[in-house]
Amino acid sequence: MKLKSLVGLLIIGSVGFLTAGCAEEQESTGPPPPAPPEYADKHMPAGWWADEKIIAEGKEIFEGVKNIDVNCSSCHGKDGKPVKAGARDFRKGERMKLYSDSVWFWRISEGVPNTKMKAWKSKLSEEDRWKAMAYERTFGLKGLAYDVAKKDWVPVAELGKAAPAAGAPGEAKPAAGDGKAPAATPAKEDKKGK
Ligand code: HEC
Questions:
Q1: Domains of the chain as residue ranges with CATH
Q2: What is the pTM of this model?
Q3: Residue of the nearest CA to atom 34 in ligand 1?
Q4: Measuring from each residue's beta carbon to the nearest atom of ligand 1, which residues come in under 6 Å?
Q5: Which of 46, 137, 156, 163 is the most buried (most CB within 10 A)?
Q6: 153 burial via Cβ count (<10 Å: 0-12, 13-18, 19+)
């Protein structure tokens, strides 16, 4: 009797263990969980999605040029094609779009439990984590930026622009009234040259 219930417990135990194992693997293909509160309000610093210098610095971090202890490309591949089994494939834009900038940043900072993706916050400053992300997104989401208000990835040039008001397509905004030129006069693009 005693032995039987012990065996029963063992069976129940291992079934539970196996199920938990499956759930763990499924988590990798399903949508990413939401960022925890400490990360939910963290976002890419203004202007960085479009900043070629930031992206170039991110590349150096990603490839281990800046710090050989941090080499994202040793698993994720220099061209975004994973070289280690199970590493996230950043070329799959449709999937990477499911990550907000906060979730992405959280994962880089804290890692993904039970996978080879470890926490990088002790090796990378916050700024360096954002730079790495600005570069990483060029594999599958090149030219796109995460728009916090829209909760979606949009072309960099449309970042922060409100959706056009319905019924007034192409209509110019009414003048502010004080006659001053709007602050948003297109800036000289001299910095953007390659
Ligand atoms: C030792 C191998 C390895 C290294 C080095 C590595 N990663 Fe990962 N990374 C992984 C694996 C494996 C996953 C997939 C985790 C999963 O199944 O969700 C992953 C996932 C990710 C994800 C997606 C998170 C998610 O929820 O799936 C991001 C973003 C990421 N890595 C960024 C980085 C950055 C940035 C670096 C360098 C600072 C880096 N990784 C270094 C193995 C690695």
A1: 45-147 (1.10.760.10)
A2: 0.76
A3: 72
A4: 28, 32, 70-72, 74-76, 84, 86-88, 104, 107-108, 112, 115-117, 120, 132, 136
A5: 137
A6: buried
